[in-house]
UniProtKB/TrEMBL annotation, chains A, B:
Substrate binds at N205, M234, Y263, H299, S319, R320, G321, D360, G361, L362, R363, E399, Y426. GO terms for molecular function: phosphomethylpyrimidine synthase activity. Keywords: 4Fe-4S, Iron, Iron-sulfur, Lyase, Metal-binding, S-adenosyl-L-methionine, Thiamine biosynthesis, Zinc. NCBIfam families: PRK09284.1, PRK13352.1, thiC. It catalyses: 5-amino-1-(5-phospho-beta-D-ribosyl)imidazole + S-adenosyl-L-methionine = 4-amino-2-methyl-5-(phosphooxymethyl)pyrimidine + CO + 5'-deoxyadenosine + formate + L-methionine + 3 H(+). It comes from Streptomyces lusitanus. The lineage of its organism: Bacteria, Bacillati, Actinomycetota, Actinomycetes, Kitasatosporales. The keyword Zinc applies. InterPro entries: ThiC, ThiC-associated_dom, ThiC/Bza_core_dom, ThiC/BzaA/B. Catalyzes the synthesis of the hydroxymethylpyrimidine phosphate (HMP-P) moiety of thiamine from aminoimidazole ribotide (AIR) in a radical S-adenosyl-L-methionine (SAM)-dependent reaction. This is Phosphomethylpyrimidine synthase. Residues 1-29, 97-117 are annotated as: Disordered.
Length: 598, 598
């Protein structure tokens, strides 16, 4: 392992280090560093892990300014708008008054028994801002720029992050094989890319519900999720204060934020699906686009004619958005208003560079319903909508299942890639069995790793609470770590350049008994260290050439090292040296273990 | 879902129920039941889950008599020898004085600084027994019987467990495609089968080490592991009291027990690999065979010529047994004594029906070393040894890796099946990445599910403590549950008859909001219930038609049900009825939610 960075081009390999990051006062063996691009205001954050052998390993970093001790963050002020100058400099957007915020935006309506005013204390106190949008119907999307051959600072930023040339980034976006979600009203976000040519990404869902949780909790969950590696966060709030919660999350988020506008629109009509209208939905999309939502799940693929296809399913429609649209279609016996107004919706999203995440409202909710007619009928519609969105220069990704047994997973990604012209696939798992509630991060992590290996670009995490309750802080961490494992396993299987250097660094540390390095290179250093110390707490154990699993006498790695030391690791030497070795070995007292062995 | 049992033939479908099993006084929604075979002393245990809709689901049960309230178990007495009559009735074995137990069997030697006598208090107090073996060199193995066309009670027992005909069991064993580990000295074990035509099995490792843990703990870990679904248990003890610990474990184990005799042999020579001899090893094998060990890992594939192939590896040799044999070969510059005496070893194993688990001493210990020359050179040797074992009527399975990235997994199972003539493959994971110590149950659960789908017959579990420390009770449970998920996901992908009925039953319960049924059908009912109650503790929530994830207004399943109720679930009716539906819907106040919705 060298300290050459696996994630960034050698040319730009000069991370400027910050002073040592510490946790509870203890040095934690890594620094937040930055790789500078072609301009001083283009600095790509990396996690620089310092090994006890003097080498270092540079890892992709999603944690934002929160892990930089030189940056003073304050959730009441929000993050610095690092992309603002880039956006303004393009000169194709303008600020405008924007849509006034109304009580119902936070789910407060006179019709509600709770009634009352909007909770003003909760209003985000940060710097006042005006929303921004493309001038006179201009598409200000990364897709439009890429098609014109422009390499934006955002594209250069992700090129450095992904260790590819900016031109590759531009090509993949222009071809619709990748998206760079970056609403002009979310300048705080650090650019990232979602596409099969790049590192597999992980999304973490947060969001309060009618039943529980607060604004503070959601902001905390967002920073917590990105600290462990979430590449994007979806705010799926459905309770009150939706608008305000989202404002706090956006102003403090270093990663793109996704939403499902339909949830908030439904709140605005007291949860009565049949009272939804295109006008209410459109107003909600504009509201969220002005706040800076980077991508929106739109269930425009659930058409009236698809609903009957779910009639004989074991678990019907399990997507919230899908079931709401199905109920609307049946209530009015009309075609979906999302499908009918899709072109108009494209124009709105293009003006803010909001990326489509075309929702799979008819995804299977059980092993029994996997890959059925309803699911694939909707997928064909999504393919049609994908083409329309591209005509409007709107970046688009496609959502996927769900619950799918292993032998039916590949068909999903293959069909999606064919029907949607290689648009990025964004899947929820899939869960490979239904029998393990409380362990669905694992039932789905299996499917996620496989489908990502076969080409899925982003994985939506599943926590241990799936099907049972709302995830707490620990569940969010477990979900993110599990999905980072699935994503990295897929990067390895895809042979992503540099991906294996991380595994190699950790395996070298393991073979050389550099325990601290193993901990610091681990996806979760805290838990790795805690587990080791549970059995061997003493500090000497951190340098011992064995662990509690086998004890000193049985450490295979120790024995391997002894064998290797005798031969300098060169095979021919070994062959020649073997007879010699057996004599030396006897001379050395025939000991293959350390003195501490007994 | 009907109450027809997925796991047993309809003909034998009359489980006799015991009185209700309870936990902490609370009914836990399932009973221990038995399916009787062709004779009264052939009773196959099953887990009968009782649903609130009056139906029941019957699941495979590995927990032994401990979960039968009608059986009074006592670890100091041991389990009833259910197979004893079957073994005696065959008339091809005889009791004999057996080998005297010596202090060094428990790792106590005058050379040891600790010295001291064998801990007599620890000696197993159960009924005195003489060891049994085949008469005058007779092979008393299930393989020998199967080849002769005999269907033993053990074969009928597993046929009922696996829902196949006894003849299929006999054929698979006779062909060497499956093993039924059943030492004549372990009559307490409930017969089970390992082969790709059958349910994928899971092994849990236990065992004290020089560093920690006691006899009591190991027995407790064994019963705990089988309670959660472990199909076999390997006792990998390496510290003191090895012999005595194994005796307690065997006398109390309802599942086959595996060991690695080399570990105990090494203890007998003070941990000096070069002092190992064929005589010491052979004596240890006989000692363990007389106790009743059902299968033994033998690293006879690690040959002198293979050691140099590991010289340039990133992590050398990571198998304890492999590294010990490599050290021995180098110390003496001689061929492995296990390889040289393999035929003699076959004769010993045949006399007790001990099954070979041919160890992969050169398995890769890191992503970098996967599928290398050393690994496959050993595999070719294992293929050769497999043929020799079969000539001696010894049942044989083959051990597999290890650390393997996803794209290299299939090559492992395909090569093993080809080289070893479809002998059962028994793999450790494989781990699909090295970067997540503390989560290796997950990094390996991904690889385990895939390789099992492709034909691996048994999976050796990995716990969260892998690479870090010794697993405790919680780690054992987490490891077993994770691997039961991988095994069942593979059963589904292989289309194992009846496997999906379990998922369907749970999905039906989910769609119908039968929360108690979801918990009771779950792999881990306790945790599923606890997670649900964390957010919605109240009893009414157990019958509520929503959960805390979406809240009442957003429950997609509820909406689906409403849609379905309107149409009776028949598609044509739905198409005809749609216009009608929208009128009814309006008439019904356009409500798709329960009154509790707001």
């Amino acid at each position: 392992m060298t300290n050459k960075d696996a994630r960034t081009p050698a040319s730009t390999q000069n991370p400027t280090e910050t002073s040592e990051a510490t946790e509870a006062g203890k040095p934690i063996g890594w620094h937040k560093a930055y790789v500078e691009g072609s301009r001083p205001d283009l600095r790509v954050p990396v996690r620089q892990v310092h090994l006890t052998n003097g080498q270092s390993v540079t890892l992709y970093d999603t944690s934002g300014p929160y892990t930089d001790p030189l940056v003073d963050t304050d959730v009441r002020r929000g993050l610095a708008p690092l992309r603002e100058n880039w956006i303004v400099a393009r000169g194709d957007t303008e600020e405008y008054a924007g849509r006034p915020v109304r009580p119902e935006d936070d789910g407060i309506k006179h019709t509600s028994p709770r009634g009352g005013l909007r909770n003003l204390d909760a209003v985000f106190p940060g710097r006042p801002r005006l929303p921004r949008r493309g001038r006179a119907g201009m598409a200000v999307t990364q897709l439009a720029y890429a098609r014109r051959g422009e390499i934006t600072p955002e594209m250069e930023f992700v090129a450095i992050r992904e260790n590819v040339s900016p031109e590759v980034v531009r090509e993949e976006i222009a071809a619709g094989r990748a998206v760079l979600p970056a609403n002009v009203n979310h300048p705080e976000s650090e650019p990232m890319i979602i596409g099969k040519r790049f590192l597999v990404k992980v999304n973490a869902n947060i969001g309060n519900s009618a039943v529980t949780s607060s604004i503070e909790e959601e902001v905390e969950k967002m920073t917590w999720a990105t600290r462990w590696g979430a590449d994007t966060v979806m705010d799926l709030s459905t309770g009150r204060n939706i608008h305000t919660t989202r404002e706090w999350v956006l102003r403090n988020s270093p990663v793109p934020i996704g939403t499902v506008p339909l949830y908030q629109a439904l709140e605005k009509v007291d949860g009565k699906a049949e009272e939804l209208t295109w006008e209410i939905y459109k107003d909600t999309v504009v509201e969220q686009a002005e706040q800076g939502v980077d991508y929106m799940t739109v269930h425009a693929g659930v058409r009236l004619a698809h609903v009957p296809l779910t009639a004989n399913r074991k678990t019907g429609i399990v997507s919230r958005g899908g079931s709401i649209m199905a109920a609307w279609c049946l209530a009015h016996h009309k075609e979906s208003f999302l499908y009918e107004h899709f072109e108009e919706l494209c124009e709105i999203l293009a003006a803010y560079d909001v990326t489509y995440s075309l929702g799979d409202g008819l995804r299977p909710g059980s092993i029994a319903d996997a890959n059925d007619e309803a699911q694939f009928a909707e997928l064909r519609t999504l393919g049609e909508l994908n083409r329309i969105a591209k005509r409007h220069d709107v970046q688009t990704m496609i959502e996927g299942p769900g619950h799918v047994p292993m032998h039916k997973i590949k068909e999903n990604i293959d069909l999606q890639q064919e029907i949607c012209e290689e648009a990025p696939f964004y899947t929820l798992g899939p869960l490979t069995t239904d029998v393990a509630p409380a362990y669905d991060h694992i039932t789905s992590g299996i499917g996620a790793a496989m489908i990502a290996w076969w080409g899925t670009a982003m994985l939506c995490y599943v926590t241990p609470k799936e099907h049972l309750g709302l995830p707490n802080r620990d569940d969010v961490k477990t979900g993110v770590i599990t999905y980072k494992i699935a994503a990295h396993a897929a990067d390895l299987a895809k042979g992503h350049p540099g991906a294996q250097e991380w595994d190699d660094a950790l395996s070298d540390a393991r073979f050389e008994f550099r325990w601290e390095d193993q901990f610091n290179l681990a996806l979760d250093p805290d838990t790795a260290r805690a587990f080791h110390d549970e059995t061997l707490p003493a500090e000497p154990a951190k340098t011992a050439h064995f662990c509690s699993m086998c004890g000193p006498k049985f450490c295979s790695m120790k024995i391997s090292q002894d064998i290797r030391r005798e031969h300098g690791g060169n095979r021919t030497e070994i062959e020649e040296g073997m007879a010699q070795k057996s004599r030396e070995f006897a001379a050395a007292g025939n000991r293959v273990y350390l003195p501490i062995a007994d």
